[in-house]
Amino acid sequence: MSRWQTELAKAHGYVPDDEGSKKRPRQGIPPQEATDVSTVILAVEHITGARGVAEHRFAPPRRWRFDAAWPDQKVALEVQGGRWIQGKGAHGRPDQAKKDEEKRQAAEDKGWRVLYCEPQEVRDLSVVVRITRVIDTR
Prior knowledge:
Layout lengths: L2 H9 L3 E2 L5 E2 L7 H18 L4 E5 L7 E6 L4 E5 L14 H16 L3 E5 L1 H5 L3 H11 L1
Parallel strand pairs: 5-6
Antiparallel strand pairs: 1-2, 3-4, 4-5
Helix pairs in contact: 1-2, 2-5
């Protein structure tokens, strides 16, 4: 990880410990993806001025979280990588798909605009264009 990525990760709560592993808000996000999401958050903030956060919990007491969110604009990002893991992808199972739909509906009911993307769109930052367009219209 480069120096600026490390600083960005620290700014968003992903702090490397002495052994080089990552302390993350939630166990399910791999360190590289966490850094990539933080990069997206910073890029959107730089372009729009909207302050974003990672792992935003939007419906307490439910434990639902968005991978990234811009709470003031009620815009959220969900990275859909889990459905491609053969045999282990929770989001591909019917029971989990139903839970995902319940989460999506709850977000809509609360006025959130949720964007979905693939991990590659986060890594190459192409999702930043979509997010900034939505934020500019809210």
